[in-house]
Amino acid sequence: MSHISYLDRASVTRLLPDLTEQLDLVAQTYVAMARNRVELPPKLGIHPRPDAFTHAMPAYLMDRDVAAIKWVSAYPQNPARGLPYISGLIIVNDPDTGLPALIMDAGAITATRTAVGSGVSIHHLAHQGWNTVAILGFGEQGRNHARVVSALNPDAEIRAYGPRLIGPVEGVKVARDARSAVDGADVVITAGPMAKEPSPVIDRSWLPDHCLVVPVDFDAYVTPQLVMEADQFVVDDITQYELHRSRGSFHGWPADAVSLGDALQSDPHGDVRVVCNLGVGSIDAVLAGVVLEREMTERIGVQLQR
After folding, report:
1. E strands, the chain, in order
2. Are 291 and 12 in contact (CB under 8 A)?
3. Which tens digits make up the pLDDT trace of 45-98?
4. Is the pTM of this model over 0.90?
5. How far is CA 263 from the centre of its chain?
6. Domains of the chain in sequence order
């Protein structure tokens, strides 16, 4: 224990399990959360700049005996500086001693875990026979969501819109605006930048009779009226959702949400369904735990002196 390994983003990507295993691990973790088998404090955050934040996201997975924390920042001004919008580190601790066992760049897991969480939601809660998917916001999150959608349904038609998106994009139809992307879509994923004072535009009139809406950008695109009128409203973590509501986010959204872990254990219902995945540290932890297991065999990390 005289050294600790550090993994850069490329090394983390190499050690991550394939997408099928990721989907299984993430679904299992949501169910474990619903069964109180995960210790998951609400995110603790600081806000050094307007519309920017840095969050601490600890989690302990009892069934897998994984203890980890992600320290992650989101700075909307960074892309103009040639820097990533989201950056951070994940530390996995030895649950027996508390000593850090692995430090890794958080980029690869942050990018994939959000899209995989949406993939779990789509797999279980989208209407049978879904085929047309709209993705609003086509940065790294949008691209990762397109990858997951294609894996779930290789024949899916993916329409994408983003203010800076200029086609062509392989496997994706670039829409001229957000409304034309959403028109008639079976699944709508919103992955735009989160704003302190959002101006959402998507209401019930935008959607077909049967639709699953997956906002991963909080309330940036989806109006409270749409969520209030939804037949089924699901969030990944109710405690975190209520905390955000108490701090001013999700103004006008309903309080009576169902957890995604509970929703995965029952049949979906209703015509319009909304699944709001806020992003929880337990999902980062389960993937980081697998990376640690593989690093203990592969030993590809940089060895740092304690």
Report:
1. 3-7, 38-39, 44-46, 53-61, 66-74, 86-93, 100-105, 132-136, 157-161, 173-174, 187-190, 211-215, 232-235, 258-259, 272-276, 302-305
2. yes
3. 999 998 899 999 999 999 999 999 999 999 988 989 999 988 999 999 999 999
4. yes
5. 17
6. 3-110+282-305 (3.30.1780.10), 114-280 (3.40.50.720)
